[in-house]
Specification:
The chain is of the alpha+beta class. It folds into two domains: 120 residues, PH-domain like, CATH 2.30.29; 61 residues, no CATH class. It is 41% helix and 18% strand. It has seven helices and seven strands. Strand 6 and strand 7 form a beta hairpin. It is globular, with a radius of gyration of 21 Å. InterPro entries: Niban-like. It comes from Cavia porcellus (Guinea pig). This is Niban apoptosis regulator 1.
Length: 240
């Protein structure tokens, strides 16, 4: 944060001056006259709730958990439906920003090998043990950079499709909703991240500009300041 702060302070001043100038000149975004958006849902609106099998990281076992997704697009897990209805604290809460939703073990393994290849692995295909043994036929993997991955399992393909589709929507909203903000604070922050990366020699688009301010800043610091080898070790330890 100390390294990033000067960039944000500079861009905040620029964005604020542009905002004041725009107010004085009474400029308006003409596209807003033609584009209409759906009215937002009431805070706390439940988009999904069901009892499903989830791999519990704390005990390294599969557990039947009552999973609830509200319109803040976080994935909350409870011991039971009764616990949720009584207002209990969730056993886990996942913000899937920057994630990828996969529905097969092969897809998950390919993505993991692509990002974190094993330098001592044999080129020949071997019958290796799966990272997580599946209790049911239809899995959903939530692959997240720099965070523990999420594992869910379903008895029916229709339930798998419903959950994976909604989870993909959550990822999309969390990835882009902040970037759509037109406030000068949001614009200053996104421009500061861009200049911060360019100062370190990183140009072009970047798939880690996803989530809120905390997630983007933390991801930027970790990615830029960590050497490639240390990054792989860091992520491996985090996921384990």
């Amino acid at each position: 944060i100390k390294n990033f702060s000067p960039y944000y302070s500079r861009q905040y001043s620029v964005a604020f001056c542009n905002h004041v100038r725009s107010e004085v000149e009474q400029q308006r975004d003409l596209t807003s006259q033609f584009l209409k958006t759906k009215p937002p849902l009431e805070p706390g609106t439940v988009l999904y709730e069901a009892e499903i099998s989830q791999f519990a990281e704390d005990i390294k076992k599969w557990k039947d958990r009552y999973v609830v997704i509200k319109n803040d697009f976080s994935v909350e897990s409870y011991d039971s439906k009764e616990a949720y209805q009584k207002g209990a604290v969730p056993k886990s809460r996942i913000l899937p920003a920057g994630g990828k939703v996969l529905t097969s073990e092969d897809e998950y393994n390919l993505l993991s090998d692509k990002h974190f290849p094993d330098p001592i692995a044999s080129n020949e295909k071997e019958n290796s043990q799966p990272f997580v043994v599946l209790p049911k036929a239809f899995p959903v993997y939530l692959w997240q950079p720099f965070l523990r991955h999420g594992y869910f399992c379903f008895q029916e393909a229709a339930d798998q499709k419903r959950f994976s589709t909604l989870l993909s929507d959550c990822v999309r909203h969390l990835n882009h909703d902040y970037m759509k903000q037109t406030t000068f604070e949001a614009q200053a922050f996104l421009e500061a991240v861009q200049f911060f990366r360019q100062e370190k020699g990183h140009y072009g688009s970047w798939d880690m500009t996803a989530g809120d301010e905390i997630q983007v800043t933390w991801g930027s610091e970790v990615w830029i300041l960590s050497p490639s080898g240390q990054m792989k070790d860091t992520v491996s330890k985090t996921n384990s």
